[in-house]
Amino acid sequence: MRACDYNNARGVTSWNCGVGSFHPGNWIKFDNVNFSTGYNAFAVSYASSLQGSFDIRIGSPSGRIIGTVNYGPTGGWSSYQWNGTPNLDSSVRGVHDVYIVSTSGGANLGEFWFKNE
Prior knowledge:
It is a single chain. By secondary structure, the chain is mainly beta. Helix content is 0%, strand content 61%. The protein has a five-stranded antiparallel β-sheet with strand order 1-4-9-6-7, with no helix packed on it. Strands 2-3-10-5-8 form a five-stranded antiparallel β-sheet, with no helix packed on it. The radius of gyration is 13 Å and the shape is globular.
């Protein structure tokens, strides 16, 4: 999924298919994400001058947390790298609305992958 393909958002900006102003309390929503028979990992392309984290939630911005990504600085707001969590809740199956909710720091987001490792 590309970050700019979100269906709804709070507090973020979008440009060239990236998402910025991803600060605590801000979120992006993706409608009808198909988890099929479950995924156990999540990867994100991001850039940041800060350390931070965000939650992956289903149903609402305060819904069930299915994973958390903690990230470090990448060297700048345009220096993208991959990070993620190998601990995604693989019991989630079927189609759900997914919210990526910033909990600390700040980042620019590029792409996301739900996958199995």
